[in-house]
Amino acid sequence: MFTYPKKEKLKSHTTINELFMSGKSVSKYPLRMVYVPIKSTDNTPLSIGVSVSKKHFKKAVDRNYYKRLLRESYRLNKQALLDVIDQPYAIMFFYQTKDRLDYAKINEKMEQMIEKFKYQIETK
């Protein structure tokens, strides 16, 4: 249930390009989620990627730390996403600030952002 297996990692260049070209966005500062429906070939309902800007965190150690926090927060809140989607989605999470938030704050923002995503999906 609380897993993030390798098959859920977003690696396809074409899917990533599609995310940036035609994806929709949900934000809850300092997090941003870009998503697009996809045609899944391997029966995975979600493909997830995370990104932390090199502009805000020059050291790779810091970027990797925040990417770990984003992945962990997603992993624990994944069920909320799975409950609302009716088709496979590719999703990219972005950490968009220089502020060094702790895990509890990031997790809280992730939950709020998922609620906004649910609302956006249900009202379309």
Automatic annotation (TrEMBL):
UniProt feature coiled coil, ranges: none
A GO term for molecular function: tRNA binding
The keyword Nuclease belongs to this UniProt entry's keyword annotation: yes
Superkingdom of the source species: Bacteria
Gene3D superfamilies given in the database record: 3.30.230.10
Principal EC category: hydrolase
Keywords: Endonuclease, Hydrolase, Nuclease, RNA-binding, tRNA processing
Protein name: Ribonuclease P protein component
Subunit structure: Consists of a catalytic RNA component (M1 or rnpB) and a protein subunit.
Gene Ontology cellular component annotations, sorted alphabetically: ribonuclease P complex
Protein family per UniProt: Belongs to the RnpA family.
Keyword flag Cell cycle: no
InterPro entries found in the cross-reference section: Ribosomal_Su5_D2-typ_SF (IPR020568), Ribsml_uS5_D2-typ_fold_subgr (IPR014721), RNase_P (IPR000100)
Enzyme Commission no: 3.1.26.5
Catalyzed reaction equations: Endonucleolytic cleavage of RNA, removing 5'-extranucleotides from tRNA precursor
Described function: RNaseP catalyzes the removal of the 5'-leader sequence from pre-tRNA to produce the mature 5'-terminus. It can also cleave other RNA substrates such as 4.5S RNA. The protein component plays an auxiliary but essential role in vivo by binding to the 5'-leader sequence and broadening the substrate specificity of the ribozyme.
Single biological process term from Gene Ontology: tRNA 5'-leader removal
Pfam short name (any one): Ribonuclease_P
